[in-house]
Amino acid sequence: MNIQVMPEHKLSSVAPMKQCNVEKKEVELILVKDQNGVQYTNSSIIPTNGCRVGPPGSSSEDNRETWGKKIDFLLSVIGFAVDLANVWRFPYLCYKNGGGAFLIPYILFLFIAGMPLFYMELALGQYNREGAATVWKICPVFKGVGYTVILIALYVGFYYNVIIAWSLHYLFSSMTTELPWLKCGNSWNSVNCTEFNGSLPDNSTSYAKNKNTPAAEYYERGVLNLHESSGIEDLGWPRWQLVLCLVVVVFILYFSLWKGVKSSGKVVYITATMPYVVLFVLLIRGITLDGSMDGIKAYLSIDFKRLKTLEVWTDAATQIFYSLGAGFGVLIAFSSYNKFDNNCYRDALLTSTVNCVTSFFSGFAIFSVLGYMAKKHGVKVENVATEGAGLVFIIYPEAISTLPGSTFWAIVFFIMLLTLGIDSAMGGMEAVITGLSDDFKILKRNRKLFTFATAFGTFLFALLCVTNGGMYVLTLLDRHAAGTSILFGVLIEAIGVSWFYGVDRFSEDIERMMGFKPGLYWRLCWKYVSPAFLLFVVIASLTSSDLSYDNYVFPEWANQIGWGVALSSMLMVPSYAMYKFCSLSGTFREVCIKICSAHNI
């Protein structure tokens, strides 16, 4: 075995990098080369008890599977990071927070916090070759952080899969000659449904908030059946159409993940690349529409005065964090299947940059169509601009329905949403599977069964989100399941790696993998800047307004349940630390008793 030892360690070439209590050792001498008449040999000690020599991943006995190709890993990371939020959230945030001026805090936070955290997680997983929980063998008292992020990833699967199911429902509904959200007069429409074929009667009314358009009524009444629920206390029965779509989504996830990265690495060839093809096609179509330039100008309009408000900086900080996807255990899980000497530094720079450029690029495809909608109805862009589900399930589909060949454009658009969601959901579920499988070997030996159990479990809980009042459950989970809790988890993770395990030791780990240490910039970000950034975002998340959906304000008991969900994951950190402390205390007492007994004290 050829052991590479860093010069600063000043160790003999025949010394193992870790002390192992072995009774028998064999010295292996290997002829390396003959140079200038001198023969050089390389020697190493082969321990007979299986103790790992050298850094993790260097052992020939490490049978952990790896990605089939490097591109499989890159596409998986990009596919996970580039999700629905890149399309339905960033463009609107950029528009409302000063247009081009918003890019200043966004890019600043990308370099001082986003990329460093992204790089840290990739390096952490690749060096230790473990999932989110067992990776904390580097500092066992922080293992609770691993359970926190695994639980959060599981919670997100409860409702994120439902959004993918909506996309699938719209995709099936688009396969008609006339799109169902084009006109009123359908079974789901109310008597107040109004078709606006020209200018709106009142320009002061925001068209994006109008609940009586055919597209808005199709979404809330035809798909969600929300009008049959009075609130979160009145959920009703699951909608069978959405249940069937949810079943299809769960089966796609299962068969994408059941064989590990060997199967998921091939699925992302479609799911990670398709959105870029569709976005480009939609952009080309969008800029040919009347009024598209007005939308793009509104998207890029620069208002530096907005930078004086705290809201802009808070939005930029939270967006860069959630956009890159650090803290969900996915990056650690994905990178744990890399080869030990893979250049994860280059991967971190590449994939995080691609993710942010995609967010910016998608804004052109979105706002070119919003400009067309504003021109069509004779209103300002601000009256049709919105974010979230209202953008991709109401405003954009309505715009598509008015175009020639609307069926084709609708199918293409919802295929994009479907693929954006699928690979992100795959990443979240892989974080759960890898994290727990590495911790409990019986699960690893029965991966297919465990994958099925995980997928089926998320399906059962997701049924609450496809009821008549399921939108209220989804809103509650979206706010609390991965809000303050995930920010808290990553804050503790950054502190654990930088302050307890140590930046210097972590840098040496990276040097063992890639042959060079991270520069001073990265070490300062890991130790000071990133934790400070995360603390700022955690505090900002605690100042958010009361939970609501449109005009419906959630009752106090619903907020308490939401915080209960958040605390259920956050409490994993102190709970495991307490358990570890008690275990160590017990061991310490036993040692003291033995010492005292040996000396008759």
Automatic annotation (TrEMBL):
Membrane topology category: Multi-pass membrane protein
Keyword presence, Cytoplasm: no
Pfam families: SNF (PF00209)
One cellular-component annotation, GO: presynaptic membrane
Ligand binding (Na(+)): G79, A81, V82, N86, S323, N355, L420, D423, S424
PROSITE patterns listed in its UniProt record: NA_NEUROTRAN_SYMP_1 (PS00610), NA_NEUROTRAN_SYMP_2 (PS00754), NA_NEUROTRAN_SYMP_3 (PS50267)
Keywords linked to the UniProt accession: Cell membrane, Disulfide bond, Glycoprotein, Membrane, Metal-binding, Neurotransmitter transport, Sodium, Symport, Transmembrane, Transmembrane helix, Transport
Subcellular localization: Cell membrane
GO biological process: amino acid transport; dopamine uptake involved in synaptic transmission
Chain segments annotated as transmembrane: 73-91, 103-124, 145-172, 237-255, 267-287, 320-337, 349-374, 408-428, 449-474, 480-503, 524-541, 561-579
MF annotations from Gene Ontology: dopamine:sodium symporter activity; metal ion binding; norepinephrine:sodium symporter activity
Major location category of this protein: membrane
Cystines in this chain: C184-C193
Keyword Cell membrane: yes
Stretch forming the signal peptide: none
Family: Belongs to the sodium:neurotransmitter symporter (SNF) (TC 2.A.22) family.
Protein name as annotated: Transporter
Organism of provenance: Pundamilia nyererei
